[in-house]
Design a protein that fits this description.
Blueprint lengths: L7 E5 L4 H12 L3 E6 L18 E5 L12 E4 L6 H4 L3 H22 L2 E7 L26 H21 L3 E6 L2 E2 L10 H11 L3 E4 L5 E3 L1 E2 H12 L9 E3 L4 E3 H12 L5 E4 L14 H7 L7 H14 L7
Parallel strand pairs: 1-2, 1-4, 2-3, 4-5, 5-6, 6-11, 7-10, 8-13
Antiparallel strand pairs: 9-12
This protein binds nicotinamide-adenine-dinucleotide and uridine-5'-diphosphate (2 copies).
One uridine-5'-diphosphate binds next to helix 5 and strand 8.
């Protein structure tokens, strides 16, 4: 890339699951990438192949504290995404989303950088409509155990739009639906990593509740493409915009598929359903198709195969 086209890009949460894929991709395009992470759920291991890269830098930093760096673009991904991790220290989760957003917006304001927020389908809560469109305002319990994440992510969206209204910032808000793929931590607690590790180890797959609840899973390569496309849209386009794969599946069917694809003989067991667990989730991605020319291209079947082989080969999660 000609140096005049090279951007300085800050990725907060860059050592996490989605962030590490994004950093790798942006470096491949020839940009300079600064990864800022406090390693709460992310790890240096996710970036092992990048540490020697001359255009890559990692800084250990908690974004609830001010950060003074120079940058052209900010992808604000820092925040634990798995319910187990975001409920571990709920007050910190709210601080990361809210105080972290204020700091990153302050940074964008000072540097004139474009800033993209990794929001979430959780802003829709336990939705009464299906699929969920961006103009649906959601149904969130403000005092439940998921609120530290859901409400804080909603507040972060508010802050993004107020910084735009008040200070004219070039903002982009992506509502990310469940994403999976290589580099999820085996102990992350999310459903696909749990099921894959359990199936490969011949342990029972733990379904929370009846297993009739649904999710729609997007392969991480598709997600990274969507986030980058969003960042490249014209200044007048802000979102919020759904990014996800509309292929919806129940947790019971997901468990069966993973057992089959892993060639496992593991059983299925049921555990108590978590409080406020959304019963359904499916993105309407008309806006993404129209505004970004984007839709997910990797089917769940194909993505699961890639993910299972990665856990088997790279994480060494073999059969017991
Ligand atoms: P992840 O937990 O793997 O990554 C989050 C990263 O943020 C980790 O590296 C973690 O160490 C870092 N982090 C946490 N608190 C921080 C702080 N205070 N300062 C600096 N770094 C901090 O999660 P992920 O799946 O990669 O998710 C990335 C983003 O996308 C999150 O904002 C999440 O809310 C959003 N998102 C993800 C999904 C999904 O299914 N993966 C769905 C919706 C939204
Ligand atoms: N901030 C930051 N880096 C910067 C500029 C600002 O972390 O390069 C933080 C700053 O500490 C402040 C927050 O961003 O707490 C919001 O900044 P803003 O300029 O919007 O508000 P103010 O400084 O007036 O409170
Ligand atoms: N889930 C499950 N077994 C697990 C982990 C999760 O049945 O081992 C369920 C969980 O209750 C939820 C769905 O799978 O209904 C997706 O959970 P995840 O934590 O991956 O994401 P989120 O709830 O944030 O969509």
């Amino acid at each position: 890339m000609h140096y005049s086209l090279r951007k300085k890009i800050l990725v907060t949460g860059g050592a996490g699951f989605i962030g590490s894929h994004l950093c790798r991709d942006l470096l491949k395009e020839g940009h300079e990438v600064l990864c800022v992470d406090n390693f709460f759920t992310g790890s240096r291991d996710n970036l092992r192949d990048l540490v020697q890269h001359p255009l890559f830098e990692i800084v250990r930093h908690d974004i609830t504290q001010p950060l003074h760096v120079e940058t052209d673009e900010i992808y604000n991904l820092a925040c634990p995404a798995s319910p187990v991790h975001y409920q571990f220290d709920p007050v910190q989760t709210t601080k990361v989303c809210v105080n972290g957003a204020i700091n990153m917006l302050g940074l964008a304001k000072r540097t004139g950088a474009r800033i993209l927020q990794a929001s979430t389908s959780e802003v829709y809560g336990d939705p009464e409509v299906r699929p969920q469109r961006e103009d649906y305002w959601g149904r969130v319990n403000p005092v439940g155990p998921r609120a530290c994440y859901d409400e804080a992510k909603r507040c972060a969206e508010t802050l993004f739009f107020d910084y735009r209204r008040q200070h004219g910032l070039p903002i982009k808000v992506a509502r990310i639906f469940n994403t999976y793929g290589p580099r999820m931590q085996p102990n992350d607690g999310r459903v696909i990593s749990n099921f894959v590790v359990q199936a490969l180890q011949g342990q029972p797959l733990t379904i929370y509740g009846s297993g009739e609840q649904t999710r729609s899973f997007c392969y991480v390569d598709d997600m990274v493409k969507g986030l980058k496309r969003l960042m490249q849209t014209g200044e007048d386009f802000t979102g919020p915009i759904n990014l996800g794969n509309p292929q919806e599946i129940s947790m019971l069917e997901l468990a069966r598929q993973i057992i089959r694809k892993a060639g496992s003989s593991a059983r299925i067991v049921h555990r108590e359903a978590p409080e406020d667990d959304p019963k359904q989730r499916q993105p309407d991605i008309c806006m993404a198709t129209e505004k970004l020319g984007w839709s997910a291209t990797v089917s769940l079947e194909e993505g699961l195969e890639k993910t299972i082989s990665w856990f088997r080969e790279w994480r060494g999660v073999g059969y017991v």
